[in-house]
Amino acid sequence: MLTVNEARERILSQFTASTTESIPLIDAASRVLAVDISANDDYPPFDNSAVDGFALRTEDTSASSSTLSVVADIPAGSAPTVTLRAGQAARIMTGAQIPQGADCVIPVEDTNFKNRSAGTVPPSMITFSQQMQAGKNIRTRGMDIRAGEIVIKQGRILKPQDLGLLATLGYTDVSVYKKARVALLSSGDELLELGAPLEPGKIRDSNSYALAAAILSADAEVIRLGVAKDTRASVTDLLDKAAQEHADLILSSAGVSVGAFDFIKEVIEANGSMDFWKVNMRPGKPLAFGSYRGIPFIGLPGNPVSAFVGFEVFVRPTLERLSGKLDGGRQTVRVRCVEEITSDGRESYLRATLHTQEGIRLATLTGHQGSGNLLSLVQADALLIIPAGVKCVPAGSEVDAILL
Ligand code: AMP
Ligand code: MG
Fold it and tell me: How is 350-368 classified by DSSP, letter by letter?
């Protein structure tokens, strides 16, 4: 039987993020960038003032008093035509282009002209006592970003500030990886659609709700196909529907163990191939991977906790790979077990609550670990990973845990 790692590697080797699309920048938040972004131009695009003040020539200034005549008024957004000569200054606003001849800006509050309220006309002369340095209060062209420089790398999950930078650089559209599309089905004659009254021998289909939400949480799209009956025809029908959707992945739950009514494996093999259908783990040993009509297929176990664990261990990493993200996914941390934990030697994923004491995360198992017990998963903060081959973890020892 395959180990968890072998199974995951076999699955991941079949996926790459390849399809990209160009979308309007306004829709690009949280999407994954498919290309390196480089600047077409310098930023700032022109030398401009960092303050409201007066642009002038350093050679006209001294530590004792200087008086200059104000020959122009340069608001933000204008293109100055004036060239400053000896003894001349221009009033200038923050962000406005520095005029020819000027090499520094004195803030308005450092001059005798303190009035900066809206609508004020510039004075004809200003006086100040300050030796200015060239470049003072000037944001020079290209000081933030040089044309040609790579500013955001492929694989980045775009943040609001990234969108701001892309807009700064004039990107109206941006190339991102297409969201993975997952066709999701449940299987089993015992399953009722949510909303239908309970009947003898039946339970509600919970997996398709938990798994649909899990798919969405991995930033993929879900196509819900409903529940297949435990017949060859019904399973074939739903898998064919999944294939028609041209999904990136078909994900099913249940029907992959060796029960008399478990048709999934047989139907997959009739129109595709099965790579493996068992993994040495607990919960979740019956876990199938193959392809159906050319589309990769993962068959999760039916028990709700097994399906969830199978998703976290195999499907989430697959969706991360398909999404092109460089990082992301679930965080794994070290935790200390409060009690002794016994295991059967399979790689085990156990539900636990965590609380921190003196900087150490302490783990306590939640309730019974039956693979149908969703409540103990709901109560858990983490899945403890007990490695393969380990039958007893003494109280006080540390293990890895996937944070939920
Ligand atoms: P199976 O793999 O078909 O033998 O199913 C294993 C167990 O999981 C059975 O107890 C099923 O009733 C249960 N199960 C299967 N599918 C679902 C589902 N969609 N929601 C809740 N329980 C399920
Ligand atoms: Mg079944």
Answer: EEEEEEEETTEEEEEE-S-
Instruction: For 269-320, write each residue's pLDDT tens digit.
Output: 999 999 999 999 999 999 999 999 999 999 999 999 999 999 999 999 999 9
- Ligand 1 binding pocket (C-beta < 6 A) is 186, 188, 190-191, 203, 205-208, 253-255, 257, 259, 262, 301-304
SS3 assignment, position 296: strand
Domains of the chain, each with CATH number or no CATH = 4-16+180-323 (3.40.980.10), 21-41+145-177 (3.90.105.10), 48-139 (2.170.190.11), 332-403 (2.40.340.10)
The pTM assigned to this predicted structure is 0.90
pLDDT tens digit sequence for 332-358: 999 999 999 999 999 999 999 999 999
If we measure between CA atoms, which residue out of 71, 141, 57 comes closest to residue 105?
57
Residue having the nearest C-alpha atom to atom 16 of ligand 1: 302
